[in-house]
Amino acid sequence: MPHASSTSPEYIELATLAGGFIHEIKNHLNTLLLNVQLLAEDLEVPETPRERRAAESVGELTEECRRVLNVANDFLRFAKITELQLVPTSLDSLVARMVDFLAPTARLQNVDILWHAAPEPPLVMLDVEMFEKVLLNLMLNAEDAMPDCGTITMQTRCEADRVYLDVIDTGCGIPPELLPKVFTPFVTTKETGTGLGLATSKKIVVSHGGTIEVHSEPGRGTKFTISLPAIV
């Protein structure tokens, strides 16, 4: 059975219906969360064992509501259909800005970010705002994989009519059984993750005519490689 492309009428209709459904769910969840927070305020200073148990239950319910809202927001980002605002862009300049943005917080976690730019790479056509989300997701994932300390290496290179970006970490790596599924929606190794970050990143990269691949070795680290068509 053929799959509908992201620009086909069937796909757009399905994405629109899914987006409307999630928006409706979010409205109810926000109402529920507001009332739970009001209840939490009433139980802020529990005086009996029963009130303490109720306060704990309300706290767990609040956290679960927030998690479901996070899933809903991530799903909307994944399913959202937008027309790309493509402009000729220096990938090196974009990466440099993201490195400058994340380096201070990375240092607080004893994570160093190394940046190796390709010499005079060609420009690529990018929707800059969307592609920043890809880089942010990959770099934050790399940080999360190194809770004690480590290094993130960002490097660009050019081959024929393609520009490549490697995002390499020295973290815990991805289990072999999960590696083929990392770009599949709702697959995650994080306790608080939704499993939509990498799926959304791949969708954005592919919409730019690019590819994204992953290589990982448990205990040694992970490398994501993005390939984009150069402007020639």
Features:
232 residues, alpha+beta, Heat Shock Protein 90, 2 domains, five-stranded mixed β-sheet, 7 strands, disordered N terminus
Kindly describe this structure.
The protein has 232 residues and is an alpha+beta fold. The protein has 2 domains: 9-79; 87-229, Histidine kinase-like ATPase, C-terminal domain (Heat Shock Protein 90), CATH 3.30.565. It is 48% helix and 20% strand. The protein has 5 helices and 7 strands; from the N terminus they run ααβαββαββαββ. The protein has helices spanning 9-42, 49-79, 91-108, 128-144, 197-207, and strands spanning 87-89, 111-116, 124-126, 150-159, 162-169, 211-217, 221-229. A 5-stranded mixed sheet has the order 2-4-5-7-6, covered by helices on one side. α1 (9-42) runs antiparallel to α2, α3 runs parallel beside α4 (128-144) and α4 runs antiparallel to α5.
Question: What is the fold's blueprint, element by element?
Answer:
Blueprint: H1 9-42, H2 49-79, E1 87-89, H3 91-108, E2 111-116, E3 124-126, H4 128-144, E4 150-159, E5 162-169, H5 197-207, E6 211-217, E7 221-229
Parallel strand pairs: 2-4
Antiparallel strand pairs: 1-3, 4-5, 5-7, 6-7
Q: Quickly give the CATH architecture of the largest domain.
A: 2-Layer Sandwich
Report helical residue fraction.
Answer: 40-55%
Q: Biggest sheet, in brief?
A: 5 strands, mixed
Using the CA coordinates, give the radius of gyration.
Answer: 21 Å
Summarize, please.
By secondary structure, the protein is α+β, with helices and mostly antiparallel strands. It has 5 helices and 7 strands; from the N terminus they run ααβαββαββαββ. Strand 6 and strand 7 form a beta hairpin.
